[in-house]
């Protein structure tokens, strides 16, 4: 199957609609009946403002996080339509991929 890998980059402390943005994205995935989502915490990263974000003991709220989804073109369109409607400011990458399932 062909589709997209979507990767959203944010920090643990970012919020949207009264929830942590990462949690909101995971729940949105379920609401839109998308096939799945993976949340990947990082120990350190640099944002577009050239500020270092890290998961040090006293700075856990600043921890960089990637939210990754593999979706069809139609699912990507529905997701981005909703993100635009919600006016979510979020950096992302969208990569054309082939995907499938092996084994039983």
């Amino acid at each position: 199957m062909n589709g997209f890998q979507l990767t959203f980059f944010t920090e643990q402390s970012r919020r949207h609609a009264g929830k942590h943005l990462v949690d909101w994205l995971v729940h949105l995935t379920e609401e839109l009946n998308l096939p799945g989502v993976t949340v990947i915490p990082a120990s350190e990263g640099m944002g577009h403002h050239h500020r270092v974000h890290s998961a040090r003991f006293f700075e856990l709220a600043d921890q960089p996080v990637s939210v990754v989804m593999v979706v069809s073109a139609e699912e990507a369109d529905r997701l981005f339509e909703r993100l635009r409607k919600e006016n979510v400011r979020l950096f992302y990458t969208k990569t054309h991929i082939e995907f499938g399932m092996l084994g039983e």
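The mean pLDDT is 88. Residues 2-65+82-94 form one domain.
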